[in-house]
Write a structure and sequence with these properties.
Largest sheet of chain B: none
Number of helices of chain B: 1
Strand content of chain A: under 5%
Number of strands of chain A: 0
Radius of gyration of chain A: 21 Å
Order of helices and strands of chain A: HHHHHHHHHHHHHHH
Number of strands of chain B: 0
Largest interface: A-B, 20 and 21 residues
Radius of gyration of chain B: 22 Å
Mean pLDDT of chain A: 87
Largest sheet of chain A: none
Distance between the termini of chain B: 59 Å
Structural class of chain A: mainly alpha
Order of helices and strands of chain B: H
Mean pLDDT of chain B: 80
Oligomer: heterodimer
Distance between the termini of chain A: 51 Å
């Protein structure tokens, strides 16, 4: 495979800056006529799709763990308000991401049916929607919960929409490594909402998601390399090749697994969580080794697919374990 | 009435929405209304939670 140099992906070189602006993609039929007339053709479900509901569900779940594990008591209504604001903030950054990335979404099979590239939502609508929800979620969180969590949420939205989407994504193969911080902040925001502080354990929760993100996305990128190359996104397999990506996946997994066990090792979580994190970590490591070893032939892609799928389950198991542990859970879980 | 939206011609007519566009606009308006109602309820409940009975004790 011929690799594309990272320098080819300087902002504006392959994919022009200012992506997602009106007129970038030509939607078909009636939607095109609506666009020309400035009339919205968007349905409610299109706006919901702009919020990236699947990503939002993960954000809600990890933020909930942050709230539950934070020291002190928080009223359920305040906790619900915090979760709602964090979810809306995450959705807002998703909408801003779709606005900016409409041009590359249009050429990737995985994303071409999103509302903006498909022409169902105008770019300006997505931008206004994202900005309104960003400001609204941060303001409501600050007014009804506390200022620290609002500041963290604002920084998270800024980091995802500007630092990752507008800068890193098209510039460096380390895009999802650094940009992964945006996805790692929600448990910390939840923790801050419940306690008004940032504790060591919340930093640990951040680190778990931070080091989980590269193996997760690079496993996907291994079998979607063509998509990313066509879109001009310098994902690691496109720039450095699949074998280097496999090596990096393995390295990050080797850091991630002990990090995930650390809450039990440091006495923050019980033995049951420690056993769960160890077993799940062993399974993740085994799949990462398979990806590293099976480089060619028919077994290579299924290995990457298995790792990608299991990485989602792995993160869910870890945070479900921490949730049960922090909420008291079944008596047997708090060993 | 034509099914397709008018984008030009007599400026008095303006843009004529199709039935589908009208349906979608109605559903968007309904969704905005529901969200605003939910926000009002949220602010009301949080006020009660934060202030409790003290919500009625204030200088006139």
């Amino acid at each position: 495979m011929s690799h594309v140099a990272a320098s080819d992906f300087e902002a504006g070189a392959v994919v022009p800056a200012g992506a997602g602006l009106p007129g970038r993609s030509t939607p078909p039929g009636e939607a095109a006529a609506s666009l020309a007339a400035g009339v919205s053709f968007a349905s409610v479900s299109d706006y919901i799709a702009l919020l990236k509901p699947r990503v939002m569900s993960l954000v809600i779940f990890t933020a909930l763990v942050g709230i539950v594990r934070a020291p002190g008591d928080v009223h359920p209504v305040i906790a619900f308000t915090a979760l709602l604001c964090i979810a809306i903030g995450a959705g807002a950054s998703g909408a801003l991401n779709m606005w900016w990335d409409a041009d590359i979404d249009a050429v990737m099979t995985r994303t071409r049916s999103r509302p903006v590239p498909a022409g169902r939502v105008q770019p300006g609508e997505a931008l206004a929607f994202g900005l309104t929800l960003s400001v609204g979620s941060v303001l409501v969180l600050g007014l009804l919960v506390n200022e620290l969590s609002a500041a963290l949420l604002a920084f998270t939205i800024f980091f995802y929409a500007v630092v990752y989407t507008m800068w890193l994504k098209r510039w460096t193969p380390q895009n999802i490594v650094i940009g992964g911080a945006a996805g790692a902040f929600p448990p910390m925001v939840g923790w801050a909402a419940a306690s008004g502080s940032i504790g060591l354990e919340s930093v640990l929760l951040f680190l778990i998601i931070f080091f989980w993100t590269p193996p997760h996305f690079w496993a996907l990128a291994l079998y979607k390399t063509g998509d990313y190359a066509r879109a001009g996104v310098p994902m690691l397999p496109v720039v450095a090749g699949p074998n280097e990506t496999r090596r990096q996946i393995l390295l990050y997994t080797l850091v991630l697994v002990p990090l995930a066990i650390a809450p039990a090792a440091l006495g923050m979580a019980g033995l049951a969580y420690g056993v769960l994190a160890t077993l799940a970590g062993a399974a993740l490591l085994a799949l990462a080794v398979q990806v590293y070893v099976r480089r060619e032939g028919a077994a290579a892609e299924p290995a990457a697919r298995r790792l990608f799928a299991f990485s989602i389950l792995y993160l869910f198991l870890l945070f479900a374990g921490l949730l049960l542990d922090g909420a008291g859970g079944p008596a047997w879980f708090g060993w | 009435m034509a099914d397709e939206p008018k984008t030009g011609g007599d400026p008095v007519d303006g843009v004529v929405l199709t039935d589908e566009q009208k349906r979608r606009r109605r559903s968007r308006s309904l969704a905005i209304g529901l969200v605003l109602g939910a926000l009002c309820a949220l602010f009301y409940v949080v006020t009660i939670v934060k202030l409790g009975p003290g919500v009625l004790i204030r200088p006139l």
